[in-house]
Amino acid sequence: MAVPATLENAIREFYCSANVTARVHDELIVLSVLNTFLSITAFLGNTLILVALHKESSLHPPSKLLLRSLAITDLLVGIIAEPLNVAYLMSVKSKRWDICYNVYVALFIASYILCSVSLLVLTAISVDRLLALWLGLRYRHVVTLRRVYITVIVMWVLSIVGTTSYIWNPQLLTLFLYIHLSFCLSIIISSYMKIFFMLRHYQIQAEINVAQEQRRQAIPLNIARYRKAVYSALWVQVTLFICYLPFGITQALTDLKSVEVSSSFYLAKTFSFTFVFVNSSLNPFLYCWKIKEVRQAVKDVIRQIYCCLT
User: What is the pTM of this model?
Assistant: First the structure.
């Protein structure tokens, strides 16, 4: 299928343009080196996390599947999206405009699919944490491994269909992205607000019932453990929001046509796009920092690798 002429013109006039990119060649080299480094760290870090999750058995399987899905998405960023970004930047620097256009289209599709899946998985994690608190003992019967597998497959299908909709109509992609972003953010925010209200309610209830020894000993311990799990998931989501925010701002300015096409804006948008990829390298560190079970499993894997090498 051919790309719509209007979209092709937009790409060639901004992302693959000699006029726009004429004064940013040194910056393109810096970005290429940075993306190469991020590609390596995302690959190594997320591979280590996936191996650790495979060996870790104490995490609830559906929750572990969501965490594994996010790590796989970050791994694909490291082995597909970031190398494509390096190829795109090098094609701009060498002024190979036909190669630039083709590589940018591939980068565009891969990046938007992976970013869309990441956001949907994080939304599912927030809902999973809410259901764990809301359903109590029924949680393990309602949130099953099969249902989570189906959910993850649906996420990938929606992301692929939504991203490739630009082939028929670029406006469809813009509409999909804004609906997708609004939906995910509203679910995430409402889920965590509900979680914190429920945690506060349980804490007050536990303090009122201090006379009941069994309740006084059991509830605070479970709530404290659950609160730690919630904050771990929240850290990952806040990090993604911070990494995505600069690109979201530049993209909104592009869609609203609020800025002139210039080398400075091109550089700002290219840097912000690279900053999105930083998230895939940071997530493995967040897992190790905030999730005790993952941290211990990673230590065991590293220890085994060290023993094999020595």
Answer: 0.87
Q: In whole angstroms, how far apart are CA 25 and each of 97, 104, 203, 218, 278?
A: 15, 17, 57, 62, 22
Burial of 188 (0-12, 13-18, 19+ CB in 10 A): buried
Q: How far apart are the first and last CA of the chain?
A: 53
The pairs formed by 251-255 with CB atoms below 8 angstroms and a separation of 24 or more are: 255/174
Alpha carbons 127 and 125: distance in angstroms, whole number: 5
33 neighbors 91 (Cβ within 8 angstroms): no
pLDDT in tens, 214-232: 444 444 446 666 777 777 7
- Distance in angstroms (rounded) separating the CA atoms of residues 237 and 219: 27
Residue 57 tokens read as: 């058995």
Please calculate the CA angle 253-256-257 and round it to the nearest 5 degrees.
Answer: 80
Q: What is the pLDDT of residues 45-85, one digit of tens each?
A: 999 999 988 888 778 889 899 999 999 999 999 999 999 99
| Cα–Cα distance for residue pair 142/24, rounded to 1 Å | 54
**How far apart are alpha carbons 236 and 47 in whole angstroms?**
18
Instruction: For residue 166, give Cα distances in angstroms to 16, 79, 154, 256, 310.
Output: 18, 24, 20, 18, 52
